[in-house]
């Protein structure tokens, strides 16, 4: 059979022959195709791979309304866990490959774009320009990237032209953006006042300030508004609004505009346009594209806009010389919504204060007589500054008004460039040199208004800029040769990497003129700072691949890396891997077993490193500048460094079996891995007398491991020319354990977690909530051992268990983990003639979430904050069985504290993505000059089911929640045409 090399639009290389082209029915021999996948510094036949390499093709990304290419990774590979991106347009998800790679430094993978390390934001890359994405998970796949590959590697390959195939493609889509995670259910104004009244009344009785129920009732009625809530939105007098716990039956709302979310949450809009032209001759190929994306978020004043252009040219200048250039330019800008992760309870966090604002406060000012909404002379609504709100309701602030008045705009400019020259000395030996240069300029302009909020009455502006530059130059010498059944591939290379970061920030107060946000329009300089960081790496590496008849496979690689983060004596180290595979299908005893198409056993072992810390000078003690006294310079000892500090080492084991049966109708992989991370960086405590800032020093002191199983399965249920149905799925497990901590430290408590040997990084350490005493509604905790044999009024026995009503005496213990038992995805694709439908679901089983967002709505005594409808199940009557304590203004701190009460199951299933498309008949579109015409409808984040309405269990790997911008649901309709 005459074999030719064919490059498909999906960006995957295939070897295909003439006989294959005629096979269109379900009898097609898929096994005749040899797939070639992207690997470190090159490509390789998939059947000879011994490493773990998952490929995402362009067809899996096409037509999806995503602004950041990393969103396509969610659910695409086993062993890859995603912390979903926020609803901020253009935001990027966080990714962990095969567990948690570190405790104190980065756990993010290394990103390689067209063969070169990439450090910029991935929203700078147009998803339509992506040819393929490869996730490298084990040491055999990642070791050539050495000291930065411990957390896995993501290879992104962009599109290029094809010989003798000129094509013009145009695509467009438009749609709407909405909230995908529903809000927690909360009580309304009619329910709210009696609940707060009840807290006051019960507290009065508990303290003994009122000796009778009648007196306590009267006190609560008299003080509900004047002392606590400050606002009465009903048309009855304050003192008679609630009587004996019942809302006055004559009460009617004076106004109904009490929904703060309504003013901030709207339907957003998305539009996307892509145009590319590709083709070439026998000597030269080219690809050029332009794209435009505009997405407005569902939160007011949040958006993302991107313009991008790309050109790639490859030319066979001589028989022995090939050169190419790949250049991308991107300009993006957007209004930033407040990041809830960094500003969880900030007054300007729109998610916190619209969620937790009591249902009795309007964001708008009203006439005290007519109760009508007030407007200024220009017809603009007047906002309420919040002087009459309880202390839990952001008195004196108005997040809607402040969001409208404030500004936070980011602008980014990128140049991503790649060029190469390839010299063939003969048909076996090739020298390739690659140069990559990237530059990113970012400017962020923030303005805080002078009418209300943190900068009132002066107003303030802050402008920060940074420039990132990376320069990579490598030289690769590759020798490939076959002798009969023996094939081998030898690669040796050298690489230099340079990174420069330049930052400047200025903050000034005292606004002079309106509508001018440059610093020159402000009077007083509060801060002005800048910094420059430099980072260098150099590496020499080699790889040897051998296979005998594609049956017995060996692979070995080594890299010597030096990192400028470490001292010269510890700067250099070697990273290596060995792997082997056995393709049993190649053996005589399986050659004639027709239902077996592929059966390969493979395994690998190797070592990679992690040097991605926040500090570029880990081995140098630092002194901080800027501590000046008027005109006298000041400098302060800031960090004590250990000159022996070095990278964290990651030793990885991997064993797998790949299979394919019945003409590859069934394909899949089962895999086991274990990652041992040695030399974890910990801040070792030092005595205060040492005079060291923070009384710590960073050293390589800890060890931990991750291990798990991964499974993937693809089944072509029906494979006909006019009808096809396939299903796919993957599942993963993960176990994480510390095996060593710094000497003298048996435990490290960090928020809701405690680190100990033989425990996970994400194991909860919390007060042990017992429940509610049915006798009096008191909150109950298990008693700490130190108080078990003591007697006190706050310690009692309930149902034979010793408990306490005092959280200070509660027992702490391990309480489960944020790590799930199983996670993954499943999906299906159905094709009938020209119509196709594909969809994917993601899921998680096991693990727990500490839902602090829900906890904030369950206070036993709120003074203006919102309440969950679950509070309606509170204890009210002796003998009542419930898990919600009595409302009580004097004991509420005992029930509201951090404890296992706020842990909830993290199980979820999410309808992550779906696309339905229709390709018009070729006979019809030929008359208009089209070669392809496709209509499609696509959606992201369509639906999810969780243990509690409002819960978002995928927002962090650690299982904690924040008041963040929850992910957006995006539904678009569009078309793609080709000429």
UniProtKB/TrEMBL annotation:
All residue ranges annotated as the TonB-dependent receptor plug domain in the record: 46-153
Q: Where is the TonB-dependent receptor-like beta-barrel domain?
A: 372-826
Which keywords annotate this record?
Cell outer membrane, Membrane, Signal, TonB box, Transmembrane, Transmembrane beta strand, Transport
State the annotated membrane topology for this chain: Multi-pass membrane protein
Q: Where is the signal peptide?
A: 1-21
Listed under GO cellular component are: cell outer membrane
Give the location in the cell. Answer: Cell outer membrane
Q: Which Pfam families match?
A: Plug, TonB_dep_Rec_b-barrel
Q: Which InterPro entries match?
A: Beta-barrel_TonB, Beta-barrel_TonB_sf, Plug_dom, Plug_dom_sf, TonB-dep_OMP_SusC/RagA, TonB-dep_OMP_SusC/RagA_CS, TonB-dep_rcpt-like
Which NCBIfam families does this UniProt record tie to the protein?
Answer: OMP_RagA_SusC, SusC_RagA_signa
Query: What protein family is recorded?
Result: Belongs to the TonB-dependent receptor family.
The protein depicted here goes by the name: TonB-linked outer membrane protein, SusC/RagA family
